[in-house]
């Protein structure tokens, strides 16, 4: 390999990795699965505050093809996820990761699909947006989609969907502790661009407070309505207008 010319995809990935390390995306940690392999990245996603995913620590792999950025990578969650647009095996179904072919059956425009101007940063922003605003037109998980719509249409009174997400968030606590990661639970913490993961034993206190609050809020539908309805309020987060992905069903 040392005598061969470096593939252009490897150069592109080296530049992207350097950019993401110097200017991280809020709410994410990026590392290589193995130092010698630029084509497999591990991503840790922190659940955004003011959403069902608040306090969560979700791990995923991004696998890049040899002809990146001309072909899209795959994005697969390692953490168990219950979501309309995530398959049972963890694969994320999102337009931006689909090859730019003309497929009238999909209901997607070619402009919504992958193109070489996209990058890891745009993928991460799309995934975090999708978590909070599922696309229920062509779900990867039909049961989750039906449950999400009941929750959304009932303005949070049908709690089944929210309960499953909260249990999944709670179950990620052990992973965060094992990795020595303090998960941000406030907007101020979430918006800090962390270049080095912090090792802070006070995270247990944050978690205890978070889940005590959740139990109290569970009994009060009005709290949920004041927080901006079932979808929560992400309008005040770090991304500004990025979150208005327009992929929620009307």
UniProtKB/TrEMBL annotation:
<dbReference type="InterPro" id="IPR023313">
    <property type="entry name" value="UBQ-conjugating_AS"/>
</dbReference>
<dbReference type="Pfam" id="PF00179">
    <property type="entry name" value="UQ_con"/>
</dbReference>
<dbReference type="InterPro" id="IPR016135">
    <property type="entry name" value="UBQ-conjugating_enzyme/RWD"/>
</dbReference>
<feature type="compositionally biased region" description="Acidic residues">
    <location>
        <begin position="206"/>
        <end position="226"/>
    </location>
</feature>
<protein>
    <recommendedName>
        <fullName>E2 ubiquitin-conjugating enzyme</fullName>
        <ecNumber>2.3.2.23</ecNumber>
    </recommendedName>
</protein>
<feature type="compositionally biased region" description="Acidic residues">
    <location>
        <begin position="239"/>
        <end position="250"/>
    </location>
</feature>
<dbReference type="GO" id="GO:0005524">
    <property type="term" value="F:ATP binding"/>
</dbReference>
<keyword id="KW-0547">Nucleotide-binding</keyword>
<feature type="active site" description="Glycyl thioester intermediate">
    <location>
        <position position="93"/>
    </location>
</feature>
<dbReference type="InterPro" id="IPR050113">
    <property type="entry name" value="Ub_conjugating_enzyme"/>
</dbReference>
<feature type="domain" description="UBC core">
    <location>
        <begin position="8"/>
        <end position="174"/>
    </location>
</feature>
<comment type="similarity">
    <text>Belongs to the ubiquitin-conjugating enzyme family.</text>
</comment>
<keyword id="KW-0067">ATP-binding</keyword>
<dbReference type="InterPro" id="IPR000608">
    <property type="entry name" value="UBC"/>
</dbReference>
<comment type="pathway">
    <text>Protein modification; protein ubiquitination.</text>
</comment>
<keyword id="KW-0597">Phosphoprotein</keyword>
<keyword id="KW-0808">Transferase</keyword>
<keyword id="KW-0833">Ubl conjugation pathway</keyword>
<feature type="region of interest" description="Disordered">
    <location>
        <begin position="198"/>
        <end position="250"/>
    </location>
</feature>
<dbReference type="GO" id="GO:0061631">
    <property type="term" value="F:ubiquitin conjugating enzyme activity"/>
</dbReference>
